[in-house]
Amino acid sequence: MVTRNTKQKEFVLNNLKNRYDHPSSQKLYDDAKKQGIEIGKVSIYRILNNLVKEGLVCKIVTKDNVAHFDFVRKNHIHLVCNNCNRIFDKNFDNDEKLTKLINDFNISMQDVILYGICKDCKQTINSSKQ
Amino acid sequence: MVTRNTKQKEFVLNNLKNRYDHPSSQKLYDDAKKQGIEIGKVSIYRILNNLVKEGLVCKIVTKDNVAHFDFVRKNHIHLVCNNCNRIFDKNFDNDEKLTKLINDFNISMQDVILYGICKDCKQTINSSKQ
DNA sequence: CTCTTATTGGAAATGATTTTCAATAAGAAA
DNA sequence: TTTCTTATTGAAAATCATTTCCAATAAGAG
């Protein structure tokens, strides 16, 4: 099975490489259309799943059941806001306890996801309380 | 708005209190049927969402897009297997770096989720390699 | 240039979850 | 206990992200 290079594969990988906002499949699709790139939704799903299998891209599912994707980079973990469902990168170099877990359970930094309420939402929620 | 006690609410909360396997809504529904408890699927979804809002129960979405639920208990985090999608509890008392994050981002221990490959799957995957 | 087959993409299927809304029942008040 | 208000339930239908199917397309080896 020889893999082939296609403009669709190139678009998905390059797009993810050049952004830091953890887009959903739908967002990638919209961006492709905006840029005039011919690509079907199915192909985006398929290409993303392959990239995840290859380990080049990681998949983060937010609590609204939408998958988000991120080109794998080093030394950061993900913070997911349970309110706005945005995903934030957080620098986090190895610490002792997490390293121990990594040895037990086959995880890497980009597999560490913390769910909470981001600063923006915390502010909005507080100021809406009378 | 006065809340009312119902056998459906009681079933969902007590069932979650007495188990440690992080069931999905479907699993809760099957168990109710098995126990002869009259409850519709919609009610399970609705009751679970309310318990999550109240902070009594936490919701963990696995990468197969299925939500799992856990009665909130102290001092543990969750490990999710990306292969079998099972969820494991892991004792993990406060450590310095995570505590710092908790202050920045409004998270608590049960919001810490690590995705990886569990020991069982690691073994299966390794032994299936020729 | 030809040919094989990896890849694409629209349509349809899937499956978890949510919405709608009429029927039911909890529990306060009489 | 009975009545009455309305919170709650649950079946059917809708929603929505994602996957499957499969015929048409195109990468790139020969």
Structural class of chain A: alpha+beta
Main sheet: strand order of chain A: 4-3-5
* Rounded mean pLDDT score of chain A: 90
| Name of the level-1 CATH class of chain A | Mainly Alpha
Report the C-alpha radius of gyration of chain A, rounded.
17 Å
**Count of DSSP E strands of chain A?**
5
Helix content of chain A: 40-55%
The span between the termini of chain A is 63 Å
Greatest interface = A-B, 32 and 32 residues
Provide a compact summary of the structure.
Chain A has helices spanning 7-17, 25-34, 41-54, 96-104, 119-128; strands spanning 57-61, 67-71, 76-81, 87-91, 112-116.
Protein architecture, described:
Two copies of one chain form a homodimer. Chain A has one domain (7-129): Winged helix-like DNA-binding domain superfamily/Winged helix DNA-binding domain (Arc Repressor Mutant, subunit A, Orthogonal Bundle). In chain A, α1 (7-17) crosses α3 and α2 (25-34) crosses α3 (41-54). Chain A has helices at 7-17, 25-34, 41-54, 96-104, 119-128, and strands at residues 57-61, 67-71, 76-81, 87-91, 112-116. The mean pLDDT of chain A is 90. Chain A is of the alpha+beta class and 130 residues long. The interface between A and B is medium-sized, with 32 and 32 residues. The structure holds a DNA duplex (30 and 30 nucleotides).
Annotation keywords:
homodimer; 130 residues; Arc Repressor Mutant, subunit A; 5 helices; DNA-binding
